[in-house]
């Protein structure tokens, strides 16, 4: 029986201050019993249609992702950005994703393979497994038996050829063409296309015409022919590098016969090109436009264009503009662009910040592997990631990443099958693995996952009932 004084005190307090909330006694119980009362919560998944990536760390559910299935419903665009430090699993994710996509008959993939060891690209083993011969662009062997891609290929429209020539020159010069140089290039290109009809026009023809312009070209603008020659001199010198310089043999002849554009996987092996030279963005521009006009077709196939070392694209204003157009055009024809970048700061702080922002905006899927704390904060700010996701990015172990699919944010552990493992763990992949093979590291990964799960439970803003 309660003390009468306590009852009187409680009644008086309720009259003056209002009803007093009942205080519940603490309950001691086990985790097994409590989980039936306090049900776990996790964000909803993306459905079960597509390719499986792995499992969600917090809920344990399988994580299925396919931009073609989600496009128009949960995704405004099918393009995908993959970020993270080396050694955390980007390479393994790319390879298993492509292998699993190719199980669908209406899928086709092009890979720009910019990394490699032992004289071959990183995708060489997968290409061999599928019976595919990579298209190896190598200036050291191009004059003998190498592959050539012609920027003046008749498969590319006249407008596309001129735009590609301008981009090549602007990338090499580091600035845009002025009106006079642009005019000299335009009249040389028009003359070559008009008068060479018995074969594929090639870059040598453009260089020759720039050095020796026709009189009618000058007369049409009421200028002296020597002026037209002077205007085109710098342009000719730049293109001469592709004809008789360090990039000769790859783009100065007709397109190599026999390139199979109907193969399920097309690999451009760029591993013999210096990744830090001006050659790489020039190659990216030529391959991108050549694919736009020869590969992307309205045949209802779903196409994936995967670019490693993609900062060569996004960090060059002129190349970024070309790819921005490709992304907008390809989206209508079922193209998913996958860009793999180590650091977002390489892009957003570069010379093409405006163009980079536009491309990033079109990437509705973002996968972020482990980064240093400062880089993670910058990434979270640019991509608009929730606070809890930014905080755990530096703690992620190899194979685990934060996935943001148009605002649906999950922490996902990538899983690799035994059949895929020999194709994924090449010598190069030892520094780009998607999951530790060492049991002790595997145990550490699980412990970190449990720690992140507890962090999520303590932060109700990051869960959805």
Automatic annotation (TrEMBL):
SUPFAM superfamilies associated with the record: P-loop containing nucleoside triphosphate hydrolases
Gene3D superfamilies: 1.10.8.730, P-loop containing nucleotide triphosphate hydrolases
Single annotated GO MF: ATP binding
Keyword ATP-binding: yes
Pfam families the UniProt entry points to: AAA_10 (PF12846)
Domain of life of the organism encoding this protein: Bacteria
Keywords: ATP-binding, Nucleotide-binding
Protein known as: ATP-binding protein
């Amino acid at each position: 029986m309660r003390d009468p004084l306590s009852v009187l005190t409680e009644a008086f307090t309720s009259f003056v201050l209002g009803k007093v909330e009942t205080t519940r006694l603490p309950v001691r119980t086990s985790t097994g019993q409590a989980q039936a009362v306090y049900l776990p919560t996790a964000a909803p998944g993306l459905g079960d249609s597509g390719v499986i990536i792995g499992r969600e760390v917090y809920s344990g559910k399988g994580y299925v992702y396919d931009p073609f299935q989600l496009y128009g419903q949960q995704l405004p665009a099918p393009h995908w950005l993959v970020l993270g430090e080396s050694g955390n699993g980007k390479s393994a994710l790319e390879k298993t994703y492509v292998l699993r996509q190719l199980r669908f008959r209406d899928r086709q993939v092009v890979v720009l393979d910019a990394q490699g060891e032992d004289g071959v690209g990183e995708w060489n083993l997968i290409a061999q497994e599928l019976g595919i011969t990579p298209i190896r662009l190598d200036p050291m062997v191009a004059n003998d038996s190498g592959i050539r891609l012609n920027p003046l290929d008749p498969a590319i429209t006249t407008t596309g050829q001129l735009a590609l020539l301008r981009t090549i020159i602007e990338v090499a010069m580091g600035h845009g063409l002025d009106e006079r140089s642009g005019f000299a290039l335009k009249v040389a290109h028009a003359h070559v296309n008009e008068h060479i009809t018995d074969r594929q026009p090639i870059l040598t023809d453009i260089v020759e015409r720039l050095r020796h312009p026709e009189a009618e070209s000058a007369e049409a603008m009421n200028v002296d022919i020597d002026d037209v020659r002077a205007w085109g001199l710098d342009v000719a010198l730049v293109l001469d590098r592709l004809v008789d310089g360090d990039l000769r043999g790859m783009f100065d002849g007709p397109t190599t016969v026999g390139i199979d554009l109907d193969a399920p996987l097309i690999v451009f092996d760029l591993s013999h090109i210096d990744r830090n030279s001006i050659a790489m963005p020039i190659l990216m521009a030529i391959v991108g436009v050549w694919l736009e006009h020869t590969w992307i077709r309205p045949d209802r196939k779903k196409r994936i264009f995967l670019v490693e070392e993609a900062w060569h694209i996004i960090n060059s204003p002129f190349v970024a503009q070309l790819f921005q157009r490709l992304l907008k055009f390809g989206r209508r024809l079922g193209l998913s662009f996958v860009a793999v970048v180590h650091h977002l700061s390489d892009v957003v702080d570069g010379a093409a910040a405006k163009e980079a922002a536009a491309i990033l905006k079109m990437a509705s899927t973002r996968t972020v592997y482990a980064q240093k704390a400062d880089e993670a904060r910058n990434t979270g700010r640019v991509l608009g990631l929730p606070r809890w996701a930014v905080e755990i990015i530096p703690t992620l172990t190899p194979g685990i990443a934060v996935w943001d699919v148009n605002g649906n944010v999950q922490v996902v552990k990538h899983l690799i099958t035994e059949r895929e493992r020999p194709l994924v763990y090449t010598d190069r992949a030892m520094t780009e693995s998607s999951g530790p093979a060492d049991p002790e590291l595997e145990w550490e990964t699980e412990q970190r996952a449990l720690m992140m799960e507890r962090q999520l439970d303590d932060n109700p803003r990051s869960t959805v009932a």
